[in-house]
TrEMBL record:
UniProt entry keywords in alphabetical sequence: Disulfide bond, Electron transport, Redox-active center, Transport
GO CC, alphabetical: cytosol
Source organism superkingdom: Bacteria
Disulfide bonds: C30-C33
Name used for this protein in its record: Thioredoxin
This protein's record includes keyword Transport: yes
Keyword Magnesium: no
Native organism taxonomy: Bacteria, Bacillati, Actinomycetota, Actinomycetes, Kitasatosporales
Chain positions of site Deprotonates C-terminal active site Cys: D24
Site, Contributes to redox potential value: residue positions: G31, P32
Amino acid sequence: MATVELTKENFDSVVSENGFVLIDFWASWCGPCRQFAPVYEAASERHDDLVFAKVDTEAQQELAQAFDIRSIPTLMIVRDNVAVFAQPGALPEAALEDVIGQARGLDMDEVRKSVEAAQQK
């Protein structure tokens, strides 16, 4: 599956309409971003049940600011409208596969309970 380009106009609909979204925050001038791109693209081919998306931080500065992106590339995973992972740096293929596997294995009911408990503090 090809990656989806996220903008401030389509971000909410893409994330809310899909239960599992990986988001790569990147910029064309960023060497590590260019290094990570083929790894990310290959993973999108292997996991065609997931949505792989990209945010160009130069073109979509509001989105980058909204998510407090300070270093690129940054990978974020959103499951059921909850950000369950966010980490800067270009991941090697094995690490990306591991992160995807861990995110797949999350009990989202437990994650939501943890989020609610944290919000009540």
